Queue: 2 jobs
Job 1
Amino acid sequence: MPEISTNPDTSPPKPSVLAQSSISGQAHPPALSPTLVQVKPARLLPHKPIARFVILAVLGVVVLTLLWSVVAPWLARPAALLSSWVLDIGASGWVQRTQMEGSLLSVYSSLQVSTAQTGWRASEVIIDINPARYGYSLPILWALLLAAFGPGRVWRMAAGAALLVPLHAFSIVTQVLMQLCLAVQLNPHVLHIQSWQLEALIYAYQLGSLVIPPLSPLLVWLWLDQAFVRRTFVGVIRG
């Protein structure tokens, strides 16, 4: 009759931990493959073209505006000369002559007013205008052109500056005419014009002072850099 052990060894067999090498008979740990970690250099500017363009454009506007403020009287001279010619030809009924005196455009008018400052004697109106006041469109345009990169930046900057001259002159002319109207207290009888003409002049002044200076550089840039706009903005919008 077979004997039954009352204390059987129920522990499982221990597995072999070390593998014996067939050559040296020694155990070797499994080889670990080296892991290479590739470190990417940090970007100073974002990779996305729109974000990069916006950052460069904002920085360019700040820097170029500071530089422009130093040479603004000389850069505004073409627009001032064009404005002087337009006033002499187109507003001869109000303007006797114009003259550049330093950085100011002096307009000698044929309109006469009598105020307490003149001792209630009729005196001719003289307007002094700073032509550089509405010339800040130029650094904005140049900042947009430089932020877009690409070839042909120099000729685009020169062409853009030329295109802004008549728009800048429009702002100067409407400023002069509005100052003349204010000098006679917006009286259409003294100005020898009708009421609707005075209202049109007021709207033109608002357009030349509030709309054209900030909007014109954007429109000129969109026209000069059509390829960049299509490639960067239109392509992203279409997905």
Note: Residues 86 and 143 are 30 Å apart (CA to CA).
Job 2
Amino acid sequence: MKKLLTLFALLLLTASVVAQQGYEKKVFVSPQGDSLQYRLLRPEGQKSGKKYPLVLFLHGAGERGSDNEKQLTHGGQMFLNPVNREKHPAFVLAPQCPESGYWAYHARPTSFVPAEMPLNEPITPIFKTLKELLDTYLALPEVDKKRVYIIGLSMGGMGTYDMAIRYPEVFAAAVPICGTVNPARLKQAKSVNFRIFHGDADNVVPVEGSREAYKALKQVGAKVEYIEFPGCNHGSWTPAFGTPDFMEWLFKQKK
């Protein structure tokens, strides 16, 4: 048993190392002196004078910390796939939320039931700093401002909704995975194209969060798709990332 546990730990470490290859370690310091650790993947074969999409990736609560590594545990690998890098060269920003933070909310919401989620929450300090980081990349001439995307899972899925609601003019597409949001907020994000994923057996973030978000976005005329995985618990990011047209759908979205 001990040997099996050691082997499992070694496999996890190996997967983590592989996921991080190609990502630069960075630290952003805001004009106010607030810092945010993040990883950056640049477009493969980047050419001078060419514009590239930008993907902002928000991890879940389990990947919070200060090592500037864990945020690549789920999802970081797919952007390193050589086929994806060749077909969809892009800037990928993967910030890491501090252990004490919760992306879009000042603390973990007491309820994940959609109607009980916060309605008028002021922007959190971590998201204020994140937006300032994002703005530094949006100012670069090599970033295609018509093709800026946000993806997030669980806590990051909640953050994906929040960012799209606060800054709909920035994002061409948003992909919240096993997230939730107060659906009354979503009318602010009707100009963003959404693709929502969730498992119907999720016992951490109720599937109603995505179902209600889908209905609310449809009601306000947004372009939205919803994909639900039967029998899938909270780890719906695995089948979501495995969806055959995940990358194709994302990178064809434009403002």
Note: Helices lie at 2-20, 82-87, 125-138, 155-166, 208-219, 237-241, 246-251.
